[in-house]
């Protein structure tokens, strides 16, 4: 990546907090802390608001939409994946994530800086890609499909309902969801586990590369990491349910399920 830093068409985005970014970051990186942004929902009205929010936030980052984005966080996980997924959904093609993150960059003794990048706001026009998005309606249809899968990548406690987030009116899971915690996708080396290792685990819970899959978590960040892990292994019909449990639990017409995890 180092050789790309001077390219005018490369946008390096730091997905860490503003505080972490101000301490030190990759030269030229822009702070893109979008981790705490709650997607308003996946119904038509909420998606309209979401698209407007995306255009505003990405425009403030000085993005035009035709850049090649490289996203990083402290190590490797949900923060960079969330930003990458938001970029891809907005229409930016093939965003990349830096394996090992900022920690690996520093360990390699590459240069860092403390000075923040001054960005000139742009007018960003989103071109939403529905192929990477699962809506609540889509998830509900998959939950009763004999061939589709709803993949819950939260903790066991969140899955079985013994743990709940204050912002979520109800605990539990989407009925019929398969549990596969997102950390199972990660290696200890700052990247995803090998294709062979993950495929074996996924096949044990019934998933195949041809399966139609909707992945969800609390608000779409852990699910974004799982989405990219699945894609890296050829599961090209996976989608991120970005509204996730935060949206699902708030809609009383959507069913929930409690109890022991299935896997």
What does this structure look like?
- The protein has 263 residues and is α/β, with parallel strands linked by helices.
- The protein folds into 2 domains: 2-128, Rhodanese-like domain (Oxidized Rhodanese, domain 1), CATH 3.40.250; 134-248, 3-Layer(aba) Sandwich (Oxidized Rhodanese, domain 1).
- Helix content is 32%, strand content 11%.
- The chain contains 9 helices and 8 strands.
- The chain has helices at residues 18-23, 44-60, 78-90, 101-107, 136-143, 156-160, 195-204, 221-232, 244-248, and strands at residues 10-14, 30-31, 68-72, 96-97, 148-152, 178-179, 212-216, 238-240.
- The strands form 2 sheets. It has a 4-stranded parallel beta sheet with strand order 2-1-3-4, covered by helices on one side.
- β3 (68-72), α3 and β4 form a beta-alpha-beta unit.
- It is globular.
- It starts with 9 loop residues before the first strand and ends in a 15-residue tail after the last helix.
- The model has no long low-confidence stretch (mean pLDDT 93).
């Amino acid at each position: 990546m180092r050789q790309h830093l001077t390219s005018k068409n490369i946008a390096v985005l730091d997905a860490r907090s503003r505080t972490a970014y101000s301490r030190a970051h990759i030269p030229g990186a822009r702070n893109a802390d979008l981790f705490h942004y709650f997607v308003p929902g996946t119904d038509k009205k909420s998606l309209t608001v979401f698209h407007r929010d995306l255009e505003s936030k990405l425009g403030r980052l000085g993005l035009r939409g035709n850049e090649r984005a490289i996203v990083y966080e402290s190590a490797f996980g949900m923060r960079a994946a969330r930003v990458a997924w938001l970029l891809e959904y907005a229409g930016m093609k093939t965003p990349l994530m830096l394996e090992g993150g900022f920690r690996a960059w520093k360990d390699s003794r590459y240069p860092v800086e403390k000075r923040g990048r001054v960005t000139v706001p742009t007018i960003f026009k989103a071109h939403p890609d529905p192929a990477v998005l699962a809506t609540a309606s889509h998830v509900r249809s998959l939950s009763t499909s004999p061939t589709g899968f709803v993949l819950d990548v939260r903790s066991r406690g969140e899955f079985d309902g013994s743990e709940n987030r204050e912002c979520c009116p109800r605990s539990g899971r989407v009925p019929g969801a398969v549990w596969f915690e997102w950390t199972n996708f990660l290696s200890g080396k700052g990247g995803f586990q090998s294709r062979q290792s993950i495929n074996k685990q996924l096949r044990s819970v019934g998933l195949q590369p041809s399966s139609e899959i909707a992945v969800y978590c609390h608000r779409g960040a852990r699910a974004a990491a799982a989405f990219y892990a699945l894609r890296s292994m050829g599961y090209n019909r996976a989608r991120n349910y970005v509204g996730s449990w935060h949206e699902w639990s708030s809609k009383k017409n959507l069913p929930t399920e409690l109890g022991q995890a299935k896997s």
